[in-house]
Design a protein that fits this description.
643 residues; globular; 12% strand; alpha/beta; Arc Repressor Mutant, subunit A; five-stranded mixed beta sheet; 27 helices
């Protein structure tokens, strides 16, 4: 059967195609579509709504699955594309939120929530719940929803904010589903998008401006949104911008001509000014040499690197590549923050986890700089800066402190035999640290071995650590046995042993607040000489900047810098949870106090916490009722992570 039906989104077409020639159970159809059986049932409802006017439907046959029934199959072959009505019904909370956002942002009139609830077959209470998330998202753009008695809900805010919010919502949808009905059902928007996608590359081709892929995607959507708003009577009338550079001027003028062709109206000076700002804020910095005073960018780059050196003792000030990369990025970043353009950072959560230390360092530096600046730098922007700082740290400090395996060599021969054994070990395993050498007689008098394991050229008695026999000409198997011990990650277990103490372990009482917990811990550490009295205020200041919740109920409170006198990690387990910030709850808390003399181990300390997060160990750790149980569970997690 030739399929000429136009479906709202691609998955419905796939479901329709799969069910034309065979009967399929829900589970099999869900597997083929990579969705849940619940989603399959929702899709079938939408398909049946589309097909109802044409005498066709999908029927669930007990014990077999869905099969297609039609009063006249020939009618399905001759339905024109335009004949199929669009009946988009958002089913999940995320789909409802996207649809409501777009509806609020594009509607000229107040919205009746009950009417939308009836249309979508849901309850008004459900949409009221969705409104909490919608208000939160709109608030980031300075937009708000006003409730008007007997009229409904109306979006209020500047046109520039409405456009930027709409672009971000549509961009998020397009990134994951370019065929989404929100993009295709609006005739003005879909036509504008189709035109822009064809015309914009040619418009920019002869300009000296270079846009990264993300910048080009945004500009494509923005042009379509601008065309829609102009056509529907919402032109931008009031907006001015400073000098953005000749490249941005030329690009804005060229795109203005394109908008004029699409809308039949000449864009205002405000439209072109806002275009310049968005172009300059998303273009590659090297193509905009005159868009901002370079001293501003250099001053911020120098401040960040100086702050990192003075507070964290990582000296990156002489890394010219890092400085230039920071300046290049900051030049366009300042344009964005000046005009409150928030560039989405789709990998922000990954950055926080994979560059946990670099994120904290950068956040502290930027927050300190913000005290002397009129600019408010968003978390998304900080995430981009973190990537540069993280690479710089890795370039100069590699991966931080590494606990190399320490071994004892035991040799029953003379000096030449010993030197041969040493050379053999170092040749195959240069990471091994040979801490001592003994003959067999002296080894037999040892009560305990302090090293991680023993390498001997002859069979000796095993003490408290493993023994590997390695003759002068070892076999492949013998080398492999040594490798199993040499390659074990000893850094994180060492960190656990070195900086986690029973006296710095606490089972939190139910109902304790975050601030009371901070005071209790910092008072104890002050009395014991680990920190000074100012440490508590620094911990509280860092928490006020942004929550130290790493994820999965794990929190890492700490000071703004390496200010401790001695290094320790204070562990708090709260199985009932401690309210942290913005509705988040912490169940495993590690208050970090690191001295400047041990800055090289800071990366390894943070890596330990990231390991707990990746292994989703918080729930198991939180249930431990003693320090010994905590250490045992933590070591088990780290060993499993190493495997």
């Amino acid at each position: 059967m030739q399929n000429v039906i136009k479906f709202p989104y691609q998955r419905l077409k796939r479901a329709f195609d799969e069910l034309q020639d065979e009967i399929l159970p829900q589970e099999e159809l869900a597997r083929r579509l990579c969705v849940s059986t619940r989603t399959v049932r929702s899709d079938i409802e939408i398909l049946n709504a589309i097909l109802a006017d044409y005498g066709a439907r999908f029927v669930l046959q007990r014990g077999k699955g869905y099969r297609l029934e039609a009063d006249d199959l020939s009618r399905l072959e001759t339905i024109p594309d335009s004949a199929v009505p669009f009946r988009y019904i958002p089913r999940s909370a995320s789909e409802r939120i996207n649809y409501l956002l777009v509806t609020f942002l594009t509607s000229a009139h107040a919205l009746n929530l009950q009417g939308l609830a009836d249309k979508w077959g849901t309850s008004r209470a459900t949409l009221q719940t969705d409104l909490a998330e919608i208000r939160e998202q709109l608030d980031r753009y300075g937009l708000e929803i006003e409730s008007r008695p007997r009229h409904g809900l109306k979006l209020l805010g500047p046109e520039t904010a409405i456009r930027l919010c709409l672009c971000d919502v549509l961009g998020r949808i397009a990134r994951y589903n370019p065929d989404h009905p929100i993009l295709n059902d609006d005739p003005v928007l879909s036509d504008a998008l189709a035109t822009i996608q064809i015309k914009l590359p040619d418009t920019l081709k002869n300009l000296t401006l270079r846009l990264p892929d993300e910048g080009l995607r945004f500009l494509t959507i923005y042009c379509a949104v601008a065309a829609k708003r102009i056509v529907e009577g919402f032109p931008l009338e009031k907006f001015t911008a400073g000098e953005m550079g000749k490249a941005a001027d030329r690009a804005a003028a060229a795109i203005g001509e394109l908008l004029s062709m699409m809308t039949g109206r000449r864009p205002s000076s405000a439209e072109e000014a806002f275009l310049k700002v968005n172009i300059a804020g998303r273009a590659s910095a090297e193509t905009l040499p005159d868009n901002i005073n370079a001293d501003d960018a250099r001053a911020l780059a120098n401040y960040i690197l100086g702050y990192i050196n003075s507070h964290y003792h990582y000296d990156l000030r002489h890394d010219e590549q890092l400085a230039q990369d920071l300046i290049t990025h900051i030049r366009t970043m300042i344009t964005r923050v000046r005009y409150q353009i928030d560039l989405p950072n789709p990998v922000l959560d990954d950055i926080k986890q994979n560059y946990a230390l670099a994120y904290d360092i950068t956040l502290s530096a930027v927050s300190s700089w913000s005290k002397y600046s009129p600019y408010a730098i968003s978390e998304n922007e900080i995430g981009f800066l973190v990537l540069h700082i993280g690479v710089g740290l890795e370039r100069h400090y590699q991966i931080g402190y590494i606990r190399h395996p320490r071994v004892l060599l035991v040799c029953d021969g003379g000096n030449s035999t010993l030197r041969n054994l040493e050379a053999l070990v170092q040749r195959h395993f240069p990471e091994i640290e040979i801490s001592n050498t003994l003959n067999c007689q002296d080894y037999n008098h040892l009560a305990k071995v302090s090293e991680d394991f023993v390498i001997a050229n002859t069979k000796v008695e095993t003490r408290n650590v493993p023994v590997v026999v390695l003759p002068s000409f070892p076999t492949v198997y013998q080398i492999e046995q040594l490798a199993k011990l040499a390659k074990i990650d000893r850094t994180r277990p060492y960190i656990l042993e070195q900086y986690f103490f029973e006296k710095h372990f606490l089972l939190a009482e139910k109902g304790i607040t975050r601030n009371d917990l901070f005071r209790h811990i910092c008072d104890q550490l002050t009395e014991e000489g680990y920190v000074d009295k100012e440490f508590l205020s620094s911990v509280q200041e860092r928490e006020a900047i942004l929550s130290t919740i790493l994820g999965d109920g794990i929190a890492l409170p700490h000071a703004l810098g390496l200010f401790a006198k001695k290094t320790t990690i204070y562990t708090v387990l709260a199985p009932d949870g401690i309210e942290w910030s913005d509705g988040t709850v912490a169940r495993v808390i590690f208050l970090i106090a690191i001295s400047k003399t041990e800055y090289e181990k800071t990366l390894a300390i943070y890596d330990l916490f990231v390991s707990f997060l990746r292994m989703r160990a918080a729930s198991n750790l939180a249930q431990c009722n003693s320090f010994e149980a905590f250490k045992e569970t933590a070591l088990s997690v780290l060993t499993r992570n190493n495997d």
